[in-house]
Amino acid sequence: MRTSAGSKGIGATVFARQADSSGFQMQFAAAAQKIDAAHLRVYLAADDMGEYAATGEEFDRL
Predict the structure, then answer these.
(1) At CA 2, angle to CA 34 and CA 41, rounded to 5?
(2) Fewer CB within 10 Å, N- or C-terminus of the chain?
(3) Domain extents for the chain?
């Protein structure tokens, strides 16, 4: 997606490339932020489960 934005146009607009559109850049950044947040949540959950497994405590699912 990032590589094609440099050459791919947007129909019915004045932008020759998607990368030239600030709206596209904001949508792309928002999507990247959501992906980063999801990765962080998965890593934190895995870390918590690893700690429970190492100590032998029962995992509280709430």
Answers:
(1) 20
(2) C
(3) 2-55
Q: In the prediction, which pLDDT does 60 show?
A: 77
Which pLDDT value is given to residue 1? Answer: 57
Whether 24 contacts 38, CB under 8 Å: no
pLDDT tens-digit profile of 35-46?
999 999 999 999
Distances (CA, A) of 39 to 28, 49, 62: 17, 15, 20
pLDDT digits (tens, 9 = 90+) for 50-61: 999 999 988 777
**In the chain, alpha helices (H):** 2-5, 22-55
Place of tokens 């990765």: 39
User: How far is residue 34's CA from residue 57's CA, in Å, rounded to a whole number?
Assistant: 31
Residues 6+ apart with CB under 8 A from 13: 21
